[in-house]
Known about the structure:
The protein is an alpha+beta fold. The chain is 44% helix and 23% strand. It folds into 4 domains: 5-107, TATA-Binding Protein, CATH 3.30.310.80; 125-202 and 243-308, no CATH class; 206-239; 348-503, no CATH class. The strands form 4 sheets. It has a 6-stranded antiparallel β-sheet. 19% of the residues are buried. It comes from Virgibacillus phasianinus. This is Apea-like HEPN domain-containing protein.
Amino acid sequence: MANFEKKLEILLLRKNESDNQVDIFEEISNNINKKFNVLREDIIAPQETDYYFECEDNEEKILITINKRTYKDKILLFAALLMHHEMEDKPFYELKILLKNTLRPLSEKVYWIYDEQNEKQSQELYQLTNKAENSFRVLIVHFMTFKYGLDWWEHISKKIKKEDRIEGYQRVLTDLKDISLDMYSLDIKDLTRLVESEYTFDVNFTIDIKNHYELTTDKEIVRKTLRKTLKELIDKPFEYDLKSEKGFWKNELSAFFNDPENFKSKWDRLSNDRNHIAHNKIIDLNMYTIMKRNSEYVISELEEAIINVSRSEVTQEEADFRETMHQVMVEETKIRDVEGTGVGILTSKQIEDVFLEYLQENILLPADDMLYFCEALQSYTIEETPDITNPQKIIEVIGYHEESLTLSILNCHIDEDEGGESELTLQFEIDSKSEEFTLTYKNTTVILNEDNVYMIETEGELNSYDLEKDVDKEQGNDNMIIFRLEQLINEQPSNRALENMEND
């Protein structure tokens, strides 16, 4: 029997009607040989109370052992099924039922002692049931929090809460005692009662009392006067609002399920079946199959219902995202509608290009020409394609007398929104004196016409007034930077003067 592992053990009870041990084993042998392919059988010496059968089932060797114990008028037979290897669930199930049916006629009572397959199935079902139960808790917490706020548990009936159950449990916990454990005072049937609970109806009525009474401060007189007045008014017409009873499950929670009736039926069945699992009852293949199918269905429906509850109320993050996406779509529509009809709504990159184009055409290229032909300068550098979003020097000049001139990008702010104003600030320094000039670009604005099509209201425009307001364009000065450069160059020795200095 080496390397055989016990997979099943059952206990058979029968009356001791004979002291002949061989008769019992002969009965057992006859029955087993009729149903099993027995390769070898024997009684284990010396007590001769143990009998074994080595059998073959679908080329798989199995061992059946029988242990006989006699106590006066009763005989106990312990039958075990042992195997070398694991067998598929269904073939093993059929094998153990065959063994039970084979030995059942030999006894008056049969008890299931050990069943490895049943233990595994019970563990699997318990995990599924546990997951279903906790999923239902999650669903209730989600819904009640969304619907009634964070303190919804405070409004649940004490009869349903059963908080006394959880007090000891909370005291024992160490690392998790600071989490919300309210729902764990409810078992699976309590959860069912919670969702099946109904609202109590109330009547709100208003009585129009036209007479005014001056009541004394004596409480007893006041009480009697009011009681008399109410009795007189009870037959008079009054307005009332009646809120009918309505089930929490039927009117609220069921809306989140695909098939509420089917789910509720399966859930109720699962609530009952949980006891079979929790109390380690023997479960046959039919029960296992149905209970597993029901559990998986319930879990699947609960997971989907939780998602549906979450979707029933839009989160702030989702609302913000939707608003952002809406604005993106609106902006894209505006750009598409006005495309080709003028200067549309420019993007950040396009606005940067507008600023760069102005710098190149009106400052950098003219400055390069002017400085190139002035040989008196000690040095000069020009950044022809600067990154306008990056503060940097774009012109740097050292004159003949070591006077310095620099033009820098001080800062840049880009606003690509419709009608947004972007700014590029330049800093011009000559020796220790500095000036700042700002270029602005106001983006295009659009308007929705009667045909629900966006059209240009004001076209985007670059404003260089700050650079140009103090120069005389009639004298050929386009902006203050070029004017200052020209002044610096005029102060330098001429090329002829330089030649004369060299000759001297």
